[in-house]
Amino acid sequence: xxxxKFRCKVCGYIxxxxxxxxxxxxxxxxxxxFEEISEPGEGKKKKGVNTNGNSYTLIxxxxxxxxxxxxxxxxxxxxxxxxxxxxxxxTMKQILSSVxxxxxxxxxxxxxxxxxxxxxxxxxxxxxxxxxxxLDKNADFGYKPEKGADEYxxxxxxxxxxxxxxxxxxxxxxxxxxxxxxxxxxxRNTVDGVFFSHASETPxxxxxxxxxxxxxxxxxxxxxxxxxxxVSLLVVKPGAKADGxxxxxGISGGTITSKGVETMLRNCLGNYAAFFKQAGQANxxxxxxxxxxxxxxPQTEGGN
Amino acid sequence: xxxxxxxALLGPLSKNNPVVVQVLxxxxxxxxxxxxxxxxxxxxxxxxxxxxxxxxxxxxxxTIPNSVRIIVQLVVVxxxxxxxxxxxxxxxxxxxxxxxxxxxxxxxNCILMGRLEAFAMGNKPWASFLDGIGNGIxxxxxxxxxxxxxxxxxSGTLFGLRVIPQSFYEAGYVNNGMMMxxxxxxxxxxxxxxxxxxxNKDLQEQ
Lengths: 304, 206
Hints:
Chain A has 304 residues and is an alpha+beta fold. Chain A contains eight helices and 13 strands. Chain B has helices spanning 3-10, 26-31, 36-59, 69-91, 93-99, 101-105, 110-118, 125-155, 166-170, 182-199; strands at residues 157-158, 161-162.
């Protein structure tokens, strides 16, 4: 154990041996760049622990990892309930924010109380626009249909005596997921308002889809149907027009995010096309199954 | 406060600034400086995390095996960041939503690894704590300067509020879209380094 240690002053590489190496194996610095370090090694030896031995390293890492994992699981376990509550409240806020009349009075209010006040029903439709499940708006909150299942959730809200249909949407932006809620008036055609959020769009550009002034307010009063067919909305370059489809201005500099919103609208709302078509036939939100079935076939194709 | 501690705290604000002198943490100063608000939030979070991880590493510095010291540092930083992020989610959900990706980005911030390796591994906890605070604030100052320039010329706003009057736009003024690109932040950093070294002649290399 009489080896000395030499540290390369350039890169910090530590050489063990009787004398400094001619060339540093890491950064090719000459021997003159090495300085002898003696105290750490000797200091440790006095304590009787060699901190550079393999077994010490292994035990050390194991201990560190066990401590850290314990810490993280304890923290996560303790905070889980609070976090879930926060997520639930936030989701309620997002749903309510899609209706402008509610969003304007949401600030500082208890989101859960407002959710209970305004949201009347939480149902699940199938592609034919029939109600397949009626869920409890509280107990089943956050219900997500299984992937590929023919199930499309729908919230029914009542604001100032008017029925609003709120549809959840999911899509992709430039960097990650985007999602939102769209509120439709009782005619199942006129957009009352939208809410968008995102995981990681560029601040100042794509992330502006969340902003009411810069983006969301434009959706109010737009129509997603044309002559009884579902056509969705287009998000276009500011000022551009399209035939037969109503448009909103995209965000300059955030083209991919804007297009992501457009795709999300088309794909997610497309699944509800049959439901939108029933507007004239059935006033009740729970539509009869029989008449809806006839319009299913052409509609599913158009929707996707 | 003795000279050494004072140096640890105040040095990083200018003469030993992590961004413009040590050139650490450039990646995140490009990513989060398009607007002032995220820049300030990121600066604060980094300050807290650097100070905390500096203290932890400094406390265990004599026991860390040399061959795995970077991994140990990384584990400590990642654990701290995760704990902070979990607490934010539980107690201050709105802030955690705003921070979203940034809090995770802190783990990859080179300032952390740089300070742990260069300072905390060889100094006592109190000095390391001050060094962490100093470097965090030095980093935050730079982020704020860059974000101020980028938001003002890139979107004509500060903290999201319009400061360039509408009449300018009507007269033909256009926001500089280039400012919104991360590459522009790099150019601004370079300009700051230039100005900084012109003022502090002793920092200039031969």
